[in-house]
Amino acid sequence: MTKTKEDLLKPSPTLLTGDVLTRDEIVQLINAVLDERLLDLKESVQIIHDKLDMPPATQTIKGSGRGRKETRDYVKITPTLDRALFNLFDAEAKQQKLSQGKLLDIILWHWYEKPKLSYEPE
Length: 122
Fold this sequence. Notes:
2 strands
């Protein structure tokens, strides 16, 4: 019989008497706890839905050559992230139809209380 998430999360007196959980029950328990924690995390994070509350747009430099360049001073970074956080971040970028770099710009811009950016006039 498959136990519900609530059954798995309740303290079990059988564990105190030496009974052992099956592998499937352990997997169900781990999945239930992870699902609950991810839901808590998603609810606690303010997701940026209002595209009007984004940093000012940069100007794209027109011309020939490789790639698109913008009128801003930027740096490239290679962060290492927890898989659960990356999955949420990646899903948000796709939902908002933004590059990961742009979403990170938006998040940091909000975190640091909307500072003036490199391409904004003094």
